[in-house]
Design goal:
The complex is a heterodimer of chains A (about 400) and B (about 110).
Chain A: H1 3-25, H2 28-49, H3 55-78, H4 102-109, H5 116-126, H6 132-138, H7 143-160, H8 172-191, H9 203-217, H10 222-236, H11 261-277, H12 282-294, H13 305-318, H14 322-335, H15 338-346, H16 350-353, H17 357-369, H18 373-386, H19 390-404
Chain B: H1 21-37, E1 54-59, E2 62-67, H2 88-97, E3 103-108
Antiparallel strand pairs in B: 1-2, 1-3
The chains are: A mainly alpha (about 400), B alpha+beta (about 110).
Amino acid sequence: MSHQTLEQVFREASGHIVAALAARFRNLDLCEDAFGEACVRAATAWLRTGPPEDPRSWLYCVARRCAIDRLRQQRTQEKYTPLLLSEDAMEEPDSEEIPDERLRLIFVCCHPAIAAESRAALTLKLVCGLSTREIAQAFLVSEATMGQRFVRAKRKIAESGISFEVPGANAWPERLAAVLSTLDVAYSKAHEAAACDGSHANFATEMLELTKTLAFLIPCDADVLALAATVRFAEARRPARVRDDSSMCPLAEQDPHKWRRDLIDEAHAYLQRSLRAGRASFRVVQAQIQAVWCSRASLQDPPPWSEVLSLYDELIAIRDDPFVRINRAVVIAEVVGPQAALAEIDSLDGIRLQGYGPFHAVRADVLRRLHRASEALQEYTAALECIHTSAERTWLMQQMHRLSEGTASSI
Amino acid sequence: MQYMLMIYEDESQFGADKNNPQIKALIAQHMEFSKSLGATRVGGAGLAATASATTVRRSGDEHIIHDGPFIEAREQLGGFYLIDVPDLDAALEIAKKIPLLTSGSIEIRPVLGG
């Protein structure tokens, strides 16, 4: 088993195992440390003898034993009994099966008593297994600052008596808003790499599971259902998002025959329920945009640009957001023309958006269409500086190459 | 007459080390002091650090939950309840129901050893 495969197994198992341990031991530091120790032991044992049949179970059982050992040590050294810990949590493992407690852990991480800026980060760390460095990058803060936020948030959870239970119905609305925005961030990170090679790509699958669980537990909330729909529509297109030459395939050029019908059907069912459940919120309209794209049956069908544009207008009316406006500019370029799209992009706060990959990529594309080659090249270079996923980079470099060869079409 | 005596100190001087001999000595002094009060003492406890505080800000029926002890300077401590509940959510539920004349804030802090 290679070092890289090991890392992969650890990362994918981490959220599931830490959540199961947390539900049992109610001490996040202890659970993280125990999981870390299990990984260290696995690295030695598996490299020598090969991985066990079920690596996750192996890790879970070892981590659970490590946690119990640590607690016993603490008890003898400090006569310290952790808060809320029942005696049966200390019993030796009885089953190999890992209970799915991730939703509980999500509600703990997204508790309103935790600083808002730490909730999503903590969920990404504990539930999705991302490293502090990766999360710091995603939130544009230093690794040290993010580390401090984790320390403070975990201390708050430990000391203030935040319960490790899924909250009761009266607390739902308040607690849910925090959970949903956390999942939004997590999924947008997973979605940005077409080739699934970004460090976050593997929890795209986890997101299908998490949104399904959430929709099962909260069956009548329009936003919960809409998020479950959006994630499915987007994941359904995954097989068509990369071309044979490993470059990204833009949405309008994807062959709908390659899209996963099973996921599209599931997504439509969620969207229908969402539309019946409540008003057209931001998330519901986002899901509708996805649905319009996924209703395309073949490349012979004209792309649904004008329908998509009117949904984007609805989205802006609900919440005017520069990130939505960048996506809308792509649609404006098709429906109205590249000049109008450029005007839209240049009306945004360019200084604030410096270093945001899609801003540079969309601006480059529009300039290319306007035959403003040298400016376009500059923007492509800026885009390549902040986009690190392989398929997107290959596509950007192809576009640049076409431009510098002077063969760029005006389409 | 009953009085609530509130002890204000700079918590940063306590540090993270529970075994700091100076702090152990202080705790011993408190125990001694409590004993010397006899029946004069109705109740009392140390509080966990402000990092563990949660505040419910109330205005009419609206409430917002904050991380931290963010009481506004124009609000003064006007009373207190000491409650025994299973977790923070239960404490928050009660805090939301505490009667207020118009608006205000309720800071929730775990009692040490509670």
